[in-house]
Amino acid sequence: MTTFTRTVDGRQLPVPGTYAIDPMHSSVAFQVKHLGFSKVRGRFTDFDGTIVVAEEPLHSAVEVTVQADSVDTAQAQRDAHLRSTDFFGVEGHPTFTFSSTGVEFGEESLQVHGDLTIRGESRPVVLDATFDGACPDPMGDATRPRIGFSATTTIDRYEFGITFNQPMETGGLLLSKLIRVELDVQAVRR
């Protein structure tokens, strides 16, 4: 039986190769505090990317492009507002991109450093990533590995020029400036 993982410095990792992210089995999601006490969640339905797992894991790389107009919060009016210049400004900035700049081993996870670009503003972010496993691709060529990763980060939307907000009568603001981003990714080796 072919193995699709390897052990590096006591950590289970995928075998080296270039992997295409499978958007049908992956998610790019976010959540933001609303009214100071509840959360609004959403996702993007159109994205693609590549994960290059290097022989030396710390030289690995990730590139992802998200189509900003694919935002879906399960509420059409809110989605239209998010596409507007108050938030994403999709007509002038149709994509978000992430391009890794380095990888480090954390205590329990991988720290993927990179540049996130939203509305033409690039800022450094760190994804706290976990390798979730690998198996033969059951939806294609069983000799090719399918791998899984999950990752999270929190960004300050104001740093990307997304500053829309409204003061509330009770004090505070309608929306938090902090956005939690959650990624669950499956990718297949090319």
Automatic annotation (TrEMBL):
Residues 18-188 form the Lipid/polyisoprenoid-binding YceI-like domain. Signal peptide: none annotated. Pfam families: YceI. InterPro entries: Lipid/polyisoprenoid-bd_YceI, TTHA0802/YceI-like_sf. Coiled coil: none annotated. It comes from the Bacteria. SMART domains: YceI. Belongs to the UPF0312 family. PANTHER family: PROTEIN YCEI. This is Polyisoprenoid-binding protein YceI. It comes from Actinopolymorpha singaporensis. The lineage of its organism: Bacteria, Bacillati, Actinomycetota, Actinomycetes, Propionibacteriales.
